[in-house]
Records
---
Amino acid sequence: MSEPVTHSGATPGVSIVVPVRNEADNVEPLIAEIAAALDGRWAYEIIYVDDGSSDATPQRLAALRGRLPHLRQVRHEQSCGQSAAVRSGVRHARGAIVATLDGDGQNNPAFLPDLIAAIEKGGARVGLAAGQRVGRKDTGFKKIQSRIANTVRNGILRDGTRDSGCGLKAFRREVFLALPYFDGLHRFLPALVRREGFDIVYVDVADRPRLSGVSNYGFFDRLWIGIMDLAGVWWLIRRKKATPVVSEVTSRD
Ligand SMILES: Nc1nc2c(ncn2[C@@H]2O[C@H](COP(=O)(O)OP(=O)(O)O)[C@@H](O)[C@H]2O)c(=O)[nH]1
Ligand SMILES: [Mg+2]
């Protein structure tokens, strides 16, 4: 793995946030791929958020930190879920632009540059660059679940998004932190970012199979929680008025 351009002293422009729970064997290969995608292009840091893993994930991260000064490790004492992990990572991020990806290897870091560049080019208007998976590498059953969930979600929320559950995303840190928080939020970012009045840029990304380990979610997690979250996001959108354009008035006339 080559050394990064930035070191802990310089403030990175970009933070890569990776939520993980029990992904020990996937840590090192994924970090090598992130470095290969970003080295020489951006001053960046990588923040792994270990959500109460019970395997060797924390030890693997600690060992790598010795060699990679741009790698940071944030730990939840107990597992609080993927959304909470992403949020903790974004809160710790020093970059104004944050990009996220899953820690199991299903998201190829080679797509990070396109997502980051889309946010840089988009300026204030664009709130989110969202990966859209093509050629899903999940089981047939999970692909069907995902297709139904995406169709129902898009039908109800009208967020114009084909695939809102892809872990590959980039956004401005301040935009993400202004969103209403709930467990499950990471699957609804397009709708929530549109709700704030921002545009979304889509980037097609090739999906991959998990490098190793097992999925953290079962069928019922996705179904019941998905229905509840959909109702919640629908309500949030219904209860939104215009986004205020705020400025402080300092002149006396
Ligand atoms: N922090 C945290 N990460 C999680 C949790 N569940 C899943 N993840 C991570 O989120 C990513 C996607 O989860 P995964 O289990 O692969 O879900 P799937 O691809 O939808 O089957 C992986 O990097 C997981 O390690 C969790 O409860 N907490
Ligand atoms: Mg996965």
---
Amino acid sequence: MFSSIPKTSTFIILNNDFVVSDSIHRLWALLLQHCPVCLQGEVFTSLFGMHTHCPLCGVKYERETGYFLNAVFIGYAGGFLILAPTALILAWLNVSILVFSLAIILTTALMTPLLFRYARLIWMHIDQMLDPRSPPSSISHR
Ligand SMILES: [Zn+2]
């Protein structure tokens, strides 16, 4: 009876270690802008250019037509989280409307590449966690 309890506890601890380790690898891959499937392949080719398929594992990034629509919502929310505090700080500083407008336009222009990239990456990694898929090639690079 008692011998089964430590085995179960060990399994749970090992299982939690695996989940934590997998999450850290995924978070790291997200920050480094890597493929959601193999967690190693580059996703972007230029500031706004994307590979259609992962250069390492070969998975197609755009699963279906309109796949990145959810990334637009993530980008919208991210833009709000950046611009709302900026606008509040500028209003608190009581700057002129010209300075306010220029600061908002400049912030938007500077944040657009990051928002575009991370909105797509966050969506692809969330989608991979919700509906996992394995690389199409027989060789796994994990
Ligand atoms: Zn990949």
